[in-house]
Specification:
2 domains, TIM Barrel, 376 residues, 3-stranded antiparallel beta sheet, Enolase-like, domain 1, binds magnesium ion, globular, alpha/beta
Protein backbone atom coordinates (compact mmCIF):
# COMPACT_ATOMS: atom_id res chain seq x y z
CA UNK A 1 0.00 0.00 0.00
CA UNK A 2 1.65 3.19 -1.23
CA UNK A 3 0.91 6.90 -1.36
CA UNK A 4 0.88 7.86 -5.03
CA UNK A 5 -0.29 11.49 -4.96
CA UNK A 6 -0.79 14.45 -2.62
CA UNK A 7 -2.81 17.57 -3.48
CA UNK A 8 -3.09 20.68 -1.29
CA UNK A 9 -5.14 23.87 -1.48
CA UNK A 10 -5.55 26.90 0.79
CA UNK A 11 -9.12 27.96 1.55
CA UNK A 12 -10.66 30.86 3.48
CA UNK A 13 -12.39 29.70 6.66
CA UNK A 14 -14.83 31.77 8.74
CA UNK A 15 -15.56 31.86 12.43
CA UNK A 16 -19.15 32.75 11.59
CA UNK A 17 -22.04 30.90 10.03
CA UNK A 18 -22.33 33.96 7.76
CA UNK A 19 -18.93 34.02 5.99
CA UNK A 20 -19.42 37.66 4.89
CA UNK A 21 -18.68 38.81 8.48
CA UNK A 22 -14.95 39.68 8.64
CA UNK A 23 -13.15 36.90 10.47
CA UNK A 24 -9.50 37.86 10.67
CA UNK A 25 -8.45 36.42 7.31
CA UNK A 26 -8.19 32.86 8.63
CA UNK A 27 -7.39 30.12 6.12
CA UNK A 28 -6.90 26.36 6.23
CA UNK A 29 -5.06 23.86 4.03
CA UNK A 30 -7.07 20.96 2.68
CA UNK A 31 -5.17 17.91 1.47
CA UNK A 32 -6.07 14.78 -0.51
CA UNK A 33 -3.74 11.83 -0.27
CA UNK A 34 -4.25 9.21 -2.98
CA UNK A 35 -3.17 5.62 -2.43
CA UNK A 36 -2.60 2.73 -4.84
CA UNK A 37 -5.39 0.74 -3.15
CA UNK A 38 -8.39 0.57 -5.51
CA UNK A 39 -11.90 -0.29 -4.35
CA UNK A 40 -14.91 -0.33 -6.68
CA UNK A 41 -12.77 1.13 -9.43
CA UNK A 42 -11.61 4.15 -7.38
CA UNK A 43 -8.36 4.71 -5.48
CA UNK A 44 -8.77 5.07 -1.72
CA UNK A 45 -8.06 8.70 -0.84
CA UNK A 46 -7.48 10.16 2.61
CA UNK A 47 -8.55 13.73 3.38
CA UNK A 48 -7.29 16.20 5.96
CA UNK A 49 -7.29 19.88 6.85
CA UNK A 50 -5.42 22.18 9.23
CA UNK A 51 -8.06 22.19 12.01
CA UNK A 52 -9.55 25.55 13.04
CA UNK A 53 -8.35 28.94 14.04
CA UNK A 54 -4.93 29.21 12.43
CA UNK A 55 -3.71 29.40 8.84
CA UNK A 56 -3.06 27.30 5.71
CA UNK A 57 0.36 25.67 5.49
CA UNK A 58 0.73 25.46 1.71
CA UNK A 59 4.45 26.23 1.49
CA UNK A 60 5.56 23.82 4.21
CA UNK A 61 3.30 21.05 2.92
CA UNK A 62 4.26 21.43 -0.74
CA UNK A 63 7.95 22.11 -0.37
CA UNK A 64 8.95 20.03 2.63
CA UNK A 65 6.54 17.47 4.02
CA UNK A 66 4.52 16.17 1.04
CA UNK A 67 7.72 15.35 -0.93
CA UNK A 68 9.12 13.41 2.07
CA UNK A 69 5.85 11.54 2.42
CA UNK A 70 5.72 10.69 -1.28
CA UNK A 71 9.32 9.54 -1.23
CA UNK A 72 8.66 7.26 1.75
CA UNK A 73 5.40 6.14 0.14
CA UNK A 74 4.22 4.20 3.19
CA UNK A 75 0.55 4.59 4.15
CA UNK A 76 1.09 3.43 7.74
CA UNK A 77 0.48 6.64 9.73
CA UNK A 78 3.16 6.06 12.38
CA UNK A 79 6.00 5.24 9.97
CA UNK A 80 4.81 7.97 7.55
CA UNK A 81 5.00 10.44 10.43
CA UNK A 82 8.59 9.44 11.15
CA UNK A 83 9.38 10.00 7.45
CA UNK A 84 7.90 13.51 7.57
CA UNK A 85 9.91 14.37 10.69
CA UNK A 86 13.20 13.09 9.27
CA UNK A 87 15.88 15.77 9.60
CA UNK A 88 13.65 18.22 11.53
CA UNK A 89 15.53 19.95 14.33
CA UNK A 90 14.34 20.17 17.95
CA UNK A 91 12.64 23.43 18.96
CA UNK A 92 11.41 26.18 16.66
CA UNK A 93 8.02 24.56 16.38
CA UNK A 94 6.43 27.51 14.58
CA UNK A 95 3.59 26.15 12.51
CA UNK A 96 5.42 23.24 10.84
CA UNK A 97 3.55 21.14 13.42
CA UNK A 98 0.28 22.27 11.78
CA UNK A 99 1.56 21.30 8.30
CA UNK A 100 2.50 17.84 9.59
CA UNK A 101 -0.80 17.50 11.47
CA UNK A 102 -2.74 18.28 8.30
CA UNK A 103 -1.06 15.45 6.37
CA UNK A 104 -1.29 13.19 9.41
CA UNK A 105 -5.10 13.58 9.45
CA UNK A 106 -5.26 12.44 5.80
CA UNK A 107 -2.97 9.48 6.57
CA UNK A 108 -5.27 8.22 9.33
CA UNK A 109 -8.31 8.72 7.10
CA UNK A 110 -6.71 6.70 4.28
CA UNK A 111 -5.41 3.93 6.55
CA UNK A 112 -8.77 3.48 8.32
CA UNK A 113 -10.59 3.41 4.98
CA UNK A 114 -8.21 0.74 3.67
CA UNK A 115 -9.09 -1.38 6.71
CA UNK A 116 -12.80 -0.54 6.29
CA UNK A 117 -13.08 0.78 9.85
CA UNK A 118 -14.34 4.06 11.34
CA UNK A 119 -11.33 5.99 12.59
CA UNK A 120 -12.08 5.54 16.32
CA UNK A 121 -12.12 1.74 15.92
CA UNK A 122 -9.04 1.77 13.68
CA UNK A 123 -7.15 3.87 16.23
CA UNK A 124 -7.99 1.49 19.05
CA UNK A 125 -6.85 -1.47 16.99
CA UNK A 126 -3.71 0.25 15.72
CA UNK A 127 -2.67 1.68 19.08
CA UNK A 128 -3.63 -1.36 21.18
CA UNK A 129 -6.39 0.37 23.14
CA UNK A 130 -9.09 -1.72 24.80
CA UNK A 131 -12.27 -1.03 22.78
CA UNK A 132 -14.45 -1.74 25.81
CA UNK A 133 -15.10 1.89 26.80
CA UNK A 134 -18.01 4.06 25.69
CA UNK A 135 -17.95 5.10 22.03
CA UNK A 136 -19.88 8.29 22.61
CA UNK A 137 -18.17 11.38 23.94
CA UNK A 138 -19.18 14.32 26.12
CA UNK A 139 -19.44 17.43 23.93
CA UNK A 140 -20.26 21.13 24.12
CA UNK A 141 -21.06 23.67 21.42
CA UNK A 142 -18.36 26.19 20.63
CA UNK A 143 -18.97 29.59 19.02
CA UNK A 144 -20.09 32.96 20.34
CA UNK A 145 -17.55 35.11 18.49
CA UNK A 146 -18.21 38.86 18.79
CA UNK A 147 -20.45 40.30 16.07
CA UNK A 148 -19.55 43.65 14.48
CA UNK A 149 -23.11 44.97 15.00
CA UNK A 150 -26.04 44.06 17.29
CA UNK A 151 -23.65 41.78 19.16
CA UNK A 152 -25.86 40.83 22.09
CA UNK A 153 -28.96 40.20 19.95
CA UNK A 154 -27.08 38.00 17.51
CA UNK A 155 -25.24 36.19 20.31
CA UNK A 156 -28.59 35.44 21.93
CA UNK A 157 -29.95 34.05 18.64
CA UNK A 158 -26.83 31.92 18.19
CA UNK A 159 -27.10 30.46 21.70
CA UNK A 160 -30.76 29.57 21.11
CA UNK A 161 -29.83 27.89 17.81
CA UNK A 162 -27.16 25.80 19.58
CA UNK A 163 -29.62 24.85 22.32
CA UNK A 164 -32.15 23.79 19.65
CA UNK A 165 -29.54 21.41 18.24
CA UNK A 166 -29.50 19.58 21.57
CA UNK A 167 -26.41 21.04 23.25
CA UNK A 168 -26.62 21.53 27.01
CA UNK A 169 -23.26 23.32 27.31
CA UNK A 170 -21.65 26.04 25.21
CA UNK A 171 -18.57 28.24 24.99
CA UNK A 172 -18.36 31.89 23.93
CA UNK A 173 -15.48 34.29 23.27
CA UNK A 174 -14.45 37.16 25.50
CA UNK A 175 -11.36 39.36 25.70
CA UNK A 176 -11.83 41.46 22.55
CA UNK A 177 -14.04 44.04 24.31
CA UNK A 178 -13.80 45.88 27.65
CA UNK A 179 -14.65 43.63 30.61
CA UNK A 180 -18.03 45.32 31.20
CA UNK A 181 -19.14 44.44 27.67
CA UNK A 182 -17.90 40.86 28.06
CA UNK A 183 -19.88 40.47 31.28
CA UNK A 184 -22.99 41.47 29.30
CA UNK A 185 -22.11 38.79 26.69
CA UNK A 186 -21.83 36.19 29.45
CA UNK A 187 -25.13 37.30 31.00
CA UNK A 188 -26.78 37.04 27.56
CA UNK A 189 -25.43 33.54 26.87
CA UNK A 190 -26.31 32.36 30.38
CA UNK A 191 -29.96 33.20 29.70
CA UNK A 192 -29.91 30.14 27.40
CA UNK A 193 -27.15 28.05 29.03
CA UNK A 194 -28.24 28.88 32.54
CA UNK A 195 -27.17 26.05 34.84
CA UNK A 196 -24.00 26.05 36.93
CA UNK A 197 -21.12 24.87 34.73
CA UNK A 198 -23.08 25.10 31.47
CA UNK A 199 -21.21 28.04 29.92
CA UNK A 200 -17.47 28.32 29.27
CA UNK A 201 -15.62 31.46 28.16
CA UNK A 202 -12.55 31.68 25.94
CA UNK A 203 -10.41 34.82 26.25
CA UNK A 204 -8.39 33.84 23.16
CA UNK A 205 -5.04 34.53 24.88
CA UNK A 206 -5.74 38.27 24.96
CA UNK A 207 -5.30 39.34 28.62
CA UNK A 208 -2.13 40.84 30.04
CA UNK A 209 -1.21 40.43 33.70
CA UNK A 210 -3.41 43.27 35.04
CA UNK A 211 -6.48 42.55 32.91
CA UNK A 212 -6.23 38.83 33.79
CA UNK A 213 -6.47 39.52 37.51
CA UNK A 214 -9.28 42.04 37.02
CA UNK A 215 -11.16 39.45 34.93
CA UNK A 216 -10.47 36.69 37.49
CA UNK A 217 -12.26 38.72 40.14
CA UNK A 218 -15.26 39.42 37.90
CA UNK A 219 -15.58 35.87 36.52
CA UNK A 220 -15.16 33.99 39.82
CA UNK A 221 -18.81 34.21 40.95
CA UNK A 222 -20.27 33.31 37.53
CA UNK A 223 -20.29 29.48 37.91
CA UNK A 224 -18.56 29.01 34.53
CA UNK A 225 -17.77 25.59 33.07
CA UNK A 226 -14.22 26.88 32.50
CA UNK A 227 -12.16 29.94 31.57
CA UNK A 228 -10.01 29.19 28.54
CA UNK A 229 -6.89 30.75 26.97
CA UNK A 230 -6.46 33.47 29.58
CA UNK A 231 -3.20 35.07 28.42
CA UNK A 232 -0.32 34.58 26.00
CA UNK A 233 0.20 30.79 25.87
CA UNK A 234 3.82 31.11 27.01
CA UNK A 235 3.15 33.71 29.74
CA UNK A 236 3.24 31.15 32.55
CA UNK A 237 3.81 33.92 35.10
CA UNK A 238 0.39 35.43 34.38
CA UNK A 239 -1.24 32.02 33.95
CA UNK A 240 -0.08 30.85 37.37
CA UNK A 241 -1.00 34.14 39.06
CA UNK A 242 -4.55 33.79 37.71
CA UNK A 243 -4.81 30.12 38.62
CA UNK A 244 -3.79 30.97 42.19
CA UNK A 245 -6.78 33.30 42.69
CA UNK A 246 -9.44 31.85 40.37
CA UNK A 247 -11.35 29.05 42.12
CA UNK A 248 -13.13 27.47 39.14
CA UNK A 249 -11.72 25.40 36.24
CA UNK A 250 -9.12 26.94 33.91
CA UNK A 251 -8.51 25.52 30.42
CA UNK A 252 -5.16 25.91 28.65
CA UNK A 253 -2.84 24.42 26.05
CA UNK A 254 -4.67 25.14 22.80
CA UNK A 255 -1.82 27.24 21.40
CA UNK A 256 1.05 25.05 22.63
CA UNK A 257 2.17 22.49 20.10
CA UNK A 258 5.00 20.38 21.50
CA UNK A 259 5.73 18.00 24.37
CA UNK A 260 8.38 20.40 25.68
CA UNK A 261 5.85 23.25 25.83
CA UNK A 262 3.24 21.00 27.46
CA UNK A 263 5.71 20.12 30.21
CA UNK A 264 6.49 23.82 30.74
CA UNK A 265 2.78 24.57 31.09
CA UNK A 266 2.44 21.80 33.66
CA UNK A 267 5.55 22.89 35.55
CA UNK A 268 4.93 26.64 35.59
CA UNK A 269 1.25 27.35 34.75
CA UNK A 270 -0.12 26.52 38.18
CA UNK A 271 -2.75 24.19 36.69
CA UNK A 272 -4.60 21.88 39.05
CA UNK A 273 -4.77 18.21 38.07
CA UNK A 274 -8.09 17.74 39.82
CA UNK A 275 -10.22 20.07 37.75
CA UNK A 276 -8.38 22.09 35.11
CA UNK A 277 -8.66 21.24 31.42
CA UNK A 278 -6.04 20.56 28.72
CA UNK A 279 -6.98 21.74 25.24
CA UNK A 280 -4.07 20.62 23.01
CA UNK A 281 -5.24 20.21 19.39
CA UNK A 282 -4.32 16.79 17.91
CA UNK A 283 -3.85 18.36 14.47
CA UNK A 284 -1.81 21.39 15.56
CA UNK A 285 0.48 19.30 17.82
CA UNK A 286 2.29 17.54 14.94
CA UNK A 287 -0.74 15.32 14.36
CA UNK A 288 -1.82 12.36 16.42
CA UNK A 289 1.68 10.94 17.10
CA UNK A 290 2.67 14.29 18.65
CA UNK A 291 -0.59 14.50 20.57
CA UNK A 292 -0.10 10.99 21.98
CA UNK A 293 3.34 12.04 23.24
CA UNK A 294 1.82 15.00 25.07
CA UNK A 295 -0.82 12.78 26.68
CA UNK A 296 1.86 10.27 27.68
CA UNK A 297 4.13 12.93 29.18
CA UNK A 298 1.34 14.52 31.21
CA UNK A 299 -0.06 11.17 32.35
CA UNK A 300 3.43 10.40 33.65
CA UNK A 301 3.17 13.61 35.67
CA UNK A 302 -0.11 12.62 37.26
CA UNK A 303 -2.72 13.98 34.87
CA UNK A 304 -5.74 11.88 33.91
CA UNK A 305 -6.62 11.61 30.25
CA UNK A 306 -10.11 12.69 31.31
CA UNK A 307 -8.60 16.18 31.68
CA UNK A 308 -7.96 16.32 27.93
CA UNK A 309 -10.67 18.04 25.86
CA UNK A 310 -9.07 18.49 22.41
CA UNK A 311 -9.55 21.74 20.53
CA UNK A 312 -10.92 21.59 16.99
CA UNK A 313 -14.66 21.03 17.00
CA UNK A 314 -14.58 18.68 14.02
CA UNK A 315 -14.93 14.96 13.27
CA UNK A 316 -11.23 14.11 13.64
CA UNK A 317 -11.12 15.41 17.23
CA UNK A 318 -14.33 13.54 17.98
CA UNK A 319 -12.85 10.23 16.79
CA UNK A 320 -9.67 10.87 18.79
CA UNK A 321 -11.60 11.70 21.98
CA UNK A 322 -13.71 8.56 21.56
CA UNK A 323 -10.82 6.21 20.76
CA UNK A 324 -8.56 7.46 23.57
CA UNK A 325 -11.27 7.81 26.23
CA UNK A 326 -10.66 11.54 26.73
CA UNK A 327 -12.86 13.76 28.90
CA UNK A 328 -14.75 15.17 25.93
CA UNK A 329 -14.37 17.53 23.00
CA UNK A 330 -15.74 20.71 21.52
CA UNK A 331 -18.01 20.81 18.48
CA UNK A 332 -18.36 23.82 16.17
CA UNK A 333 -21.95 23.31 14.99
CA UNK A 334 -22.21 26.74 13.31
CA UNK A 335 -18.68 28.15 13.16
CA UNK A 336 -16.07 27.28 10.51
CA UNK A 337 -18.50 25.78 7.97
CA UNK A 338 -18.30 23.29 6.35
CA UNK A 339 -15.42 21.93 8.48
CA UNK A 340 -17.08 22.19 11.91
CA UNK A 341 -19.89 20.21 13.43
CA UNK A 342 -21.07 16.64 13.35
CA UNK A 343 -21.74 14.31 10.44
CA UNK A 344 -25.05 13.98 8.62
CA UNK A 345 -27.81 12.92 10.95
CA UNK A 346 -25.74 12.68 14.16
CA UNK A 347 -27.53 13.86 17.28
CA UNK A 348 -26.49 15.08 20.71
CA UNK A 349 -28.27 13.32 23.53
CA UNK A 350 -27.67 13.96 27.25
CA UNK A 351 -24.62 16.03 26.30
CA UNK A 352 -22.96 13.19 24.38
CA UNK A 353 -22.53 12.13 20.77
CA UNK A 354 -20.78 9.32 18.90
CA UNK A 355 -18.36 9.67 15.97
CA UNK A 356 -19.62 8.39 12.60
CA UNK A 357 -19.52 4.70 11.76
CA UNK A 358 -18.46 5.15 8.11
CA UNK A 359 -14.92 4.04 7.19
CA UNK A 360 -12.26 6.66 7.96
CA UNK A 361 -13.13 10.02 9.49
CA UNK A 362 -16.52 10.16 7.76
CA UNK A 363 -16.12 13.39 5.79
CA UNK A 364 -18.17 11.63 3.10
CA UNK A 365 -21.24 12.13 5.35
CA UNK A 366 -20.86 15.92 5.16
CA UNK A 367 -22.02 16.72 1.62
CA UNK A 368 -20.67 20.28 1.44
CA UNK A 369 -17.28 19.28 2.85
CA UNK A 370 -16.65 16.16 0.78
CA UNK A 371 -17.38 18.22 -2.34
CA UNK A 372 -14.47 20.52 -1.44
CA UNK A 373 -12.13 17.58 -0.92
CA UNK A 374 -13.18 15.74 -4.06
CA UNK A 375 -12.61 18.83 -6.23
CA UNK A 376 -8.95 18.71 -5.15
MG1 LIG B 1 -9.70 28.55 22.63
Amino acid sequence: MRIVGIAEKSLDISRYRDPTIPSGGLTTSIVALTTDVVRQGKPITGYGFSSMGRFAQSGLIRERFAPRLLQAGDVDPLSAWAAMMKGEKPGGHGERCVAIGTLDMALWDAAAKIDGLPLHRFLQQHLGIDPGGATDVEVYASGGYPYPSNDLGRLSDEMKALRAQGYGKAKIKIGAAPLGQDLKRIETAQKTFDGAGCLAVDAMNTYDADRSLEAAKALSPLRLMWWEDVCDPLDFETQSAVTAVYPNPIAAGEALFSVAEAKLLDRHGGLRRNGDILLFDPVHCYGLPGYLRIIGALEDRGWSRRSFWPHGGHLFSLHVASALGLGGTEVNPLSFPPFGGLAGDAIVSDGRTAPPDAPGIGFELKADLIGLFERL
